């Protein structure tokens, strides 16, 4: 009986998580992709090329804006370009998600300056780990974010 209660208690959180809706911003994406797909394959698969996605992301911000970091990735099962755009007229950065299939802006998230400051050391660690992975495996890393 105890085992049944424990099993039920463990199953409830998983069932609740599975019932959560997919982010509405990504439900209408035009291209799907797996998290394990190599970055080189994602880039070849994308209909919208990286330069065009950058122009689209910058088009969401004001004059003098620049891309701080970003690139192609899989978000909630969708193939997207995710760019952190720094607009001098705003505090912090805006993360812009561009659909890699049709160029539609799927979502924008304003990130405060304090969050960006916290992310910076983590990004350096990720970048270093990605370089080590690339050197060891000889394969491009999907988590390698180059500053733009």
Beta-strand residue percentage: 15-25%
Average pLDDT for all residues? 80
The structural domain count equals 1
Query: Architecture, according to CATH?
Result: Roll
DSSP helix fraction? 25-40%
Shape designation: globular
Count of strand segments: 4
- Oligomeric form: single chain
> What is the count of DSSP helices, taking H or I runs of 4+ residues?
4
N-to-C CA distance: 58 Å
Q: Overview of this structure, please?
A:
By secondary structure, the chain is an alpha+beta fold. Helix content is 40%, strand content 22%. The protein has helices at 2-19, 39-45, 50-58, 113-137; strands at residues 66-75, 78-86, 93-99, 105-111. The longest helix is centred in the C-terminal third of the chain and has 25 residues, at 113-137. It is globular.
Please render the helix and strand layout as text.
Elements: H1 2-19, H2 39-45, H3 50-58, E1 66-75, E2 78-86, E3 93-99, E4 105-111, H4 113-137
Antiparallel strand pairs: 1-2, 2-3, 3-4
Question: What keywords describe this structure?
Answer:
Nuclear Transport Factor 2, Chain: A, globular, 148 residues, single chain
Short description:
The protein has helices at 2-19, 39-45, 50-58, 113-137; strands spanning 66-75, 78-86, 93-99, 105-111. By secondary structure, it is an alpha+beta fold.
